[in-house]
Structures are given as structure tokens and as C-alpha cells.
């Protein structure tokens, strides 16, 4: 009985951690893992383990703040660091997330093209449907669609098994670190952290926890939710790398995009693996294109004290609705302009994310150490060392990524 | 000291303060305010040099947008001893959430306006508009010209301090609100929206400040989890008062989401008759007719005259939730018939209820599924449907608004839920 009650208790808390982590695997994440697998086989698998640990440490801190304060991260930043800090952070987030939305809609366009649909039809159709879904649809419908969409991610696990990899070397590479002094290798290993730990996720996670009203007594269950969520994300990433590593790497097929990976799989693994890859990419892209602009609209409005909410109309919450609408509309336009510098835009958005991340993490750490705010739930000394060390490492690695984007590395 | 009229705090921050020799004492970093006659009064400035310094208001000689100077010398100024009890404008008021009762929404304090008169300065209003944000960012002037290009002006959005009232006695953790009587004038659904848009802790203290009647109405509009939170954090006496104020079916809904012990504890403090009604409703499954019904309905014996029925109705209808139908029951409370209010009003005063009542009745049993109930109400265009068991005993009625809630969840339940 006790186990059953515990399971029920966990199910009532479950959600924010798992959903946030799943959506983290959006178009750019999938691209990074496909490229990593195709280029270096299993050699980058080991990076997933430390990345998961770092992700858990950070998400746990953020989630704890949500539980204890009952407020979102943007609320806390505004209240404790003032309107200037909040404003510029939100401006940065807005621009970076515009880039993320472009990346996701580009992923959608690419997956539709390889399935044989014209992007000039499918991008407007996709953009319009997610716009209608959020502005006109009910919360329940949106939630059902999202939960179903999260299940589709397991298609990658299926494709991983279908690739029939030699599991011995796979598992060995997953736990034994190996280093190669190759600029592409270093860039990719850092990019894996960069696409896993993003600024917008932290805002999104804390707000959903505050929104769900999770209490202190549910804190342990929530921590489990976070750990499971982070693990699932990286399990999916693992199988993407394994699929590409087993099928594309031996043939020396280099890909630059997730959709290219799907196309390349077709002659090697047959119709099914190709379809799974294409459909999973379409799903992840559309999911990202719903959540990222929506999340942005929420945080920006909350930090600025503007009205926000999916069920409000344009006249009730103008800023909220316009941020959401303009992000989707402009991002779709960018995708449809022939010869638009899509790759440049996505790189810039990754750079901006990298620039924002240190601020977000440092603000979060300062807040979580604020005894007035957190009381007994403030970080302990040991926990502080671990978190600061993690944060400083991530900041170091992402700054490296940002710098080398401007000054390419020659090794 | 010269009068300065109106000033915004953000225009003063970081301004140098000079002593009589022209040396810089420090830069303005915050303002201490104390209770004044009508409005809070500025009592001292906090300056930033190497450490924080405190400069009393009375020691100032000039105070305006351009120059701030003091009568005392740099060597005489005292350090500021930080205290939690002080109310500081920048630390405690800037950027905090307040409730704008006019628009029924939660906004943030972007700036604070001072008013100067008779050598004193008062905290006059808070700015919650866009211009306040831009002023804080130091780009108000430029933005104004951009706006003018589009033929618009920046909206000033000030709320006078007189309308504000702190939620918690200690101001350091404020969420401010309007005076209570203004809150009670808001629609309960709007109040529920406000509670939904602030943190749980603020929501609970906000709720605690409402009068019983408003609280009862607002509580019914909240999501079940939020209802339970609030009921759990409130003291039992007050919780019982609120439950008593609610229609029994709504009260039963709230209590059924609480832990059993807590619900019993609250019920013990509820008036006996009311508590019995609620307890009876609590026995039914949530998604059945019994779970939906209320036992708050108007019933009369068949052998009274229309005149008598009307007289009784005038007193009883004040308490009842639904007054569109009068139910006619015998001594054993078995349902005999129903008369609509219209039928009663147009009937001859001297005829009996039994003469005008409809006896071909649509009823449901307490165990009936909620969807069947919805179908019957919809098919026969009823405003309320009686719940009657096999022996004819009348348990309660299900009103059309309860059915609407099943088919369309209240707006406040969907609002602001994150996807």
C-alpha cells in the first residue's frame, strides 16, 4: 500500500521536470546529436554523463527556488535585481528565443521537405496551426497534445535498436571519456552542453513549478521528477548519437543538419528508420516552436508587469499576444525568404544563448543563496561548491564556444 | 528650502549630494519613509559613498532635479544602520507586485512619485505604466520622440498612494493592495484571477484580507488545488465562517478536496444546520447527480395559498441560491409538484399551490451520472432539476450553472496554466 501511495504522490507532482527536459531536445539539439554521431561515431557519447549531472544540479536548484518562493525566475530577478537587470535579460531572451523559434521552424520545414511536402505550404500551415492552437485552443487540449508529442520522442529509442549497433563498444564509449585534439570534436562536445542547458529552460521550469503550486512537502517528489526528466532527455540524445554512429559514421557520411541525417539513413537502414527520424524531427521542431515563443511571452510580460495568459484576448493582454504572434510570424517569414541566412541566424542565436547563460545562472545562484528568500532551503556549503563549480565550468565552456564562433579554432 | 513640486524617484537616484563647501557627500541610493499625516513622509536620504550614509531630511538645504545639497559637512554625516523595520522606497517598493483594482490585474511598481510642499516631501503615487519603466532605464526622452513619430503619447499610469494598502503589516515583504472595500466591489471571478496570478504565499495572505462574503464568492471561482491550499493555511474559525457563507454544494466541493481530518475540523465550527446539509452532500460521489446537487432550495406544502407562498418567498429567497422554481413537498418531504416563479406571480392570490403546480415531473435519482443530468436539463430547457430517490423523497436540486461548469470549466480554471 505504501508503495502505491508513494507512486500516486509522485504522479501528482510529476510533469514540469519531465516536460521541460523533453522539449529541451528541440531541432537544434537533435541536429547537434545527429552531427556528433555521424562525424565521430560513439566517441562523444561519454559527454552525456557529465552533461546529465550538470543539468540535474542546475535544474534542481531552479526547481527548489520555484517550490520555496512560489514565483518564477523572471519575477525574482525583477524583485531582487531591479528593472534594468530584468529588462535587458528579457530583451536578450526575446532575441535569442526568436532565433530558437527560427531554428525549430527550419527543422519543421526540412523534415516536411524530406517527406515530400513543400515548405512554402507546410511552414505557413504549421505556424498557423500552432498560433490557432495557443490563441484559440483550451489549456486541456494543448496539454494533451504536448503529452502525446513527448511520447513520440521514444521513436529515437526504437531507431537506436533498429540500427543494431554493437552494444559493447557503445556502452564502453558511454562511460569511458576519450579526448581528441580536433577542433570539430571539441566544438561538438561543448555544443552538446550548450544545447542541453539553455537560458529559456530555467525560466520555463521554475514558472511551471510555481504555476503548478508544488509545495515544500512535495519537494522530494519534485526532485525525482527533475532527475527523471533530465535522464530521459539524455537517453533520447544517447539513442540519436547511437543511430547515427552505427549507421552513418562507418560510411563516412558527414551531415550538417538533422534532416540530412534522416535522408542519409534511407539507403542504409531502410524506409522505417528514415521515417522515424523525419517524423521525430518534425514533432520536436513543432513542439519547440509552440513552447519557446509562448514561454518568452510569459516571462517578458511577467517581468515587466504586463497582463499575460493564453486565454486572454489581444485587447486584454496586448503585449503578450503580440510577442507570441510576432515571434511566430516573423520566424516563418524568415524561413520562407529564399536565400535567407538561416545558418547564420541559428549560430547567432546559439551565441546569444551562450552569452545569456552566465547571467541567468549567476542570478539563480545568488538568489538561491539568499537566506531571506530561501530560508532553510538555501544552498548548503557543500552544495554551493558543487553548484558553483558546475556553473563556472558551464560558463567557461560556453564562453569558449562563443569566442570560437567568431575566431574559428585551428588545432 | 525651495519647493520642488513633483519628482520621480528614478530621476533622483545616483545624483550627487553636496555639502556647503561643495564637496560630494555621496550619491542618492534610497529614501527612508515614515508614516505621515495623510501620506508617508520622506524622513531621510540614504547615500552611497564607500559605505551607506544616512542624511536626515531636515539637514537638506536644496532638493530638486538639478541640485541636492545639505546643511551639514561631510565630516558630520552619520553612517546608515540598516534596519529591517525601515521602509525604503527602492528596496521595499520598487519592482514589487501590486493589485490594480481598477483593471482587476496584477502590475509591478515601475517608479514612485514624490510631492513636495511646505519643506516636506510625501510619497504621493506609484507609477505602473510604460513611461515608468523607460524612465528607470533612462531612455524615456528618446522613447517619447519615437512614440510621437507614430502619433502616440506615452501613457502615464499612476496609482495614488491613498488607494494603496499593504497586505502584510510589515512593509518589507509587500504586495500592496487597494483598500478592502474596493476589492469587494470587484467581480469574484476577477479576484480569483488576481489570486491566480500571484505567488501562493501572497495569494493566501491576499485572500485572508478579504471580507467573509467576498472571500466565499472568490473561493468558489478558484481551482480545486488552490482552494485546498487556502483552506489549509487559514485558521479554522475563519475557514468555517467562509464555508458557512457558501452555498452548500460549493462548500461540499471545497471540503471534499481537503484531507478528511481538516474537513471535519472545519465542519465542527460550522453552524449545525448548515453542517448537516454539507455532510449530506459530501456522501455522494462527485460525478453523480448527488455530488452536483445543492440542498438549498425553496419548498412549500401543497395546501397553502399563493398569497401565503409569496409572503414566505419574500423572506426565504434572500438566502437561497436558485429561486426560479418553488418545489411542493408533502410532510414526509416527498416531491409532489413544481411551480415556476412566473406561474406563482400570475396566479390568483387565493388559489392554492396544489392548484397551479405541475405534476408531470422530470427528476433524477442521486446516483445518476452527471452527463445524463446535463442531457435532461438541456433537453427540457430547465433552470434546475430536482434530485429525488426511489421513495419520492426530495434530496436537492441541480442548477443549470453547475451543469455549465461541467461542460465548460470556469475561465479562471483554465487561465494562466502553463503548457
Largest sheet of chain A: none
Low-confidence stretches of chain B: 170-174, 411-419
* Quaternary structure: heterodimer
**Which strand-content bin applies to the residues of chain B?**
15-25%
Helix content of chain A: over 70%
Q: Tell me, what's the shape of chain A?
A: globular
- Unreliable residue runs of chain A: none
Q: Count all strands of chain B and give the number.
A: 21
Radius of gyration of chain A: 21 Å
Distance between the termini of chain B: 57 Å
Give the overall silhouette of chain B.
Answer: elongated
Measured by DSSP, the beta-strand proportion of chain A falls in under 5%
Please write the string of helix (H) and strand (E) elements of chain A: HHHHHHHHHHHHHHHHH
Task: Write structural notes for this entry.
The complex is a heterodimer of chains A (411) and B (419). By secondary structure, chain A is mainly alpha-helical. Chain A has helices at residues 2-13, 16-24, 27-40, 48-69, 73-114, 119-136, 139-152, 155-162, 167-175, 183-196, 199-212, 219-247, 258-304, 318-336, 342-368, 371-374, 381-406. In chain A, helix 3 (27-40) crosses helix 12, helix 4 (48-69) crosses helix 15 and helix 5 runs parallel beside helix 14. The mean pLDDT of chain A is 84. With 419 residues, chain B is an alpha+beta fold. Chain B is 36% helix and 23% strand. In chain B, the strands form six sheets. In chain B, strands 2, 3, 4, 5, 6, 7, 8 and 9 form an eight-stranded mixed β-sheet that branches. Residues 170-174 and 411-419 of chain B have low confidence and may be disordered. The chains are: A mainly alpha (411), B alpha+beta (419). The A-B interface holds A 69-71, 75, 78-79, 82-84, 86-87, 134, 138-140, 142-143, 146, 207-208, 210-213, 215, 290-291, 294, 298, 304-305, 307-312 and B 94-97, 105-110, 128, 133, 136-137, 199-202, 225-226, 229, 411, 414-419.
Amino acid at each position: 500500500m505504501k508503495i502505491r501511495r508513494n507512486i500516486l504522490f509522485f504522479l501528482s507532482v510529476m510533469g514540469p521536470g519531465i516536460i521541460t527536459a523533453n522539449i529541451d531536445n528541440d531541432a537544434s539539439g537533435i541536429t547537434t546529436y545527429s552531427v556528433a554521431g555521424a562525424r565521430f561515431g560513439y566517441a562523444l557519447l561519454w559527454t552525456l554523463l557529465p552533461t546529465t549531472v550538470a543539468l540535474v544540479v542546475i535544474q534542481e536548484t531552479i526547481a527548489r527556488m520555484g517550490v520555496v518562493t512560489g514565483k518564477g525566475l523572471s519575477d525574482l530577478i525583477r524583485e531582487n535585481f531591479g528593472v534594468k537587470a530584468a529588462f535587458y535579460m528579457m530583451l536578450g531572451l526575446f532575441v535569442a528565443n526568436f532565433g530558437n523559434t527560427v531554428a525549430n521552424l527550419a527543422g519543421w520545414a526540412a523534415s516536411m521537405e524530406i517527406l515530400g511536402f513543400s515548405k512554402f505550404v507546410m511552414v505557413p500551415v504549421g505556424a498557423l496551426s500552432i498560433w490557432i492552437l495557443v490563441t484559440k485552443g483550451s489549456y486541456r487540449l494543448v496539454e494533451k497534445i504536448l503529452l502525446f508529442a513527448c511520447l513520440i520522442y521514444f521513436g529515437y529509442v526504437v531507431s537506436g535498436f533498429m540500427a543494431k549497433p554493437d552494444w559493447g563498444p557503445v556502452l564502453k564509449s558511454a562511460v569511458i571519456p576519450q579526448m581528441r585534439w580536433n577542433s570539430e570534436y571539441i566544438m561538438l562536445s561543448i555544443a552538446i552542453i550548450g544545447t542541453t542547458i539553455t537560458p529559456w529552460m530555467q525560466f520555463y521550469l521554475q514558472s511551471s513549478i510555481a504555476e503548478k503550486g508544488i509545495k515544500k512537502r512535495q519537494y522530494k517528489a519534485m526532485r525525482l521528477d527533475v532527475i527523471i526528466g533530465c535522464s530521459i532527455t539524455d537517453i533520447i540524445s544517447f539513442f540519436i548519437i547511437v543511430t547515427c554512429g552505427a549507421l552513418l559514421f562507418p560510411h563516412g557520411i558527414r551531415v550538417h543538419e538533422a534532416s540530412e541525417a534522416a535522408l542519409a539513413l534511407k539507403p542504409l537502414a531502410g524506409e522505417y528508420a528514415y521515417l522515424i527520424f523525419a517524423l521525430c524531427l518534425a514533432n520536436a521542431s513543432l513542439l519547440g516552436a509552440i513552447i519557446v515563443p509562448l514561454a518568452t511571452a510569459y516571462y517578458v510580460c511577467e517581468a515587466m508587469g504586463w497582463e499575460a495568459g493564453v486565454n486572454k484576448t489581444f485587447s486584454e493582454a496586448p503585449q503578450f499576444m503580440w510577442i507570441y504572434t510576432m515571434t511566430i510570424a516573423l520566424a516563418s517569414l524568415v524561413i520562407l525568404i529564399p536565400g535567407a541566412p538561416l545558418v547564420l541566424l541559428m549560430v547567432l542565436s546559439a551565441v546569444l544563448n551562450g552569452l545569456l547563460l552566465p547571467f541567468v545562472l549567476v542570478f539563480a545562484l545568488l538568489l538561491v543563496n539568499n537566506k531571506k528568500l530561501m530560508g532553510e532551503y538555501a544552498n548548503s556549503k557543500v552544495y554551493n561548491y558543487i553548484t558553483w563549480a558546475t556553473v563556472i565550468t558551464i560558463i567557461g565552456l560556453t564562453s569558449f564556444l562563443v569566442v570560437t564562433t567568431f575566431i574559428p579554432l585551428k588545432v | 528650502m525651495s519647493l520642488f513640486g513633483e519628482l520621480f524617484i528614478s530621476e533622483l537616484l545616483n545624483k550627487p549630494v553636496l555639502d556647503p563647501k561643495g564637496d560630494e557627500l555621496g550619491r542618492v541610493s534610497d529614501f527612508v519613509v515614515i508614516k505621515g499625516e495623510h501620506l508617508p513622509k520622506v524622513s531621510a536620504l540614504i547615500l552611497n559613498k564607500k559605505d551607506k550614509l544616512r542624511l536626515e531630511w531636515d539637514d537638506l538645504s536644496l532638493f530638486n532635479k538639478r541640485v541636492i545639497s545639505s546643511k551639514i559637512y561631510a565630516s558630520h554625516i552619520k553612517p546608515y544602520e540598516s534596519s529591517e523595520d525601515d521602509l525604503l522606497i527602492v528596496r521595499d517598493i520598487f519592482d514589487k507586485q501590486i493589485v490594480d483594482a481598477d483593471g482587476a490585474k496584477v502590475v509591478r511598481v515601475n517608479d514612485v512619485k514624490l510631492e513636495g510642499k511646505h519643506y516636506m516631501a510625501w510619497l504621493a503615487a506609484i507609477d505602473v505604466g510604460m513611461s515608468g519603466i523607460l524612465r528607470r532605464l533612462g531612455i524615456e526622452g528618446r522613447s517619447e520622440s519615437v512614440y510621437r513619430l507614430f502619433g502616440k503619447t506615452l501613457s502615464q499610469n499612476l496609482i495614488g498612494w491613498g488607494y494603496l494598502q499593504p497586505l502584510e503589516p510589515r512593509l518589507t515583504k509587500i504586495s500592496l493592495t487597494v483598500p478592502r472595500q474596493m476589492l469587494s466591489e470587484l467581480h469574484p471571478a476577477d479576484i480569483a484571477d488576481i489570486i491566480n496570478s500571484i505567488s501562493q504565499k501572497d495569494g493566501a495572505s491576499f485572500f485572508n484580507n478579504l471580507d467573509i462574503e467576498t472571500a466565499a464568492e472568490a473561493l468558489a471561482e478558484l481551482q480545486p488545488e488552490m482552494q485546498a491550499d487556502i483552506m489549509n493555511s487559514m485558521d479554522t474559525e475563519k475557514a468555517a465562517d467562509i464555508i458557512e457563507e457558501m452555498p452548500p454544494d460549493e462548500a461540499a466541493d471545497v471540503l471534499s478536496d481537503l484531507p478528511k481530518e481538516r474537513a471535519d475540523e472545519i465542519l465542527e465550527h460550522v453552524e449545525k444546520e448548515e453542517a448537516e446539509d454539507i455532510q449530506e452532500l459530501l456522501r455522494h460521489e462527485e460525478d453523480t447527480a448527488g455530488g452536483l446537487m445543492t440542498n438549498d432550495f425553496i419548498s412549500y406544502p401543497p395546501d397553502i395559498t399563493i398569497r401565503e407562498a409569496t409572503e414566505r418567498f419574500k423572506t426565504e429567497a434572500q438566502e437561497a441560491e436558485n429561486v426560479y422554481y418553488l418545489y411542493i413537498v408533502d410532510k414526509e418531504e416527498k416531491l409532489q409538484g413544481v411551480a415556476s416563479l412566473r406561474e406563482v406571480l400570475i396566479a390568483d392570490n387565493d388559489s392554492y399551490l396544489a392548484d397551479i403546480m405541475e405534476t408531470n415531473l422530470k427528476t433524477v435519482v442521486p446516483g445518476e451520472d452527471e452527463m445524463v443530468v446535463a442531457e435532461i436539463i438541456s433537453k427540457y430547457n430547465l433552470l434546475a432539476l430536482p434530485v429525488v430517490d426511489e421513495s419520492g423523497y426530495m434530496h436537492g436540486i441541480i442548477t443549470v450553472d453547475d451543469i455549465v461548469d461541467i461542460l465548460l470549466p470556469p475561465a479562471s480554471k483554465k487561465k494562466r496554466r502553463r503548457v
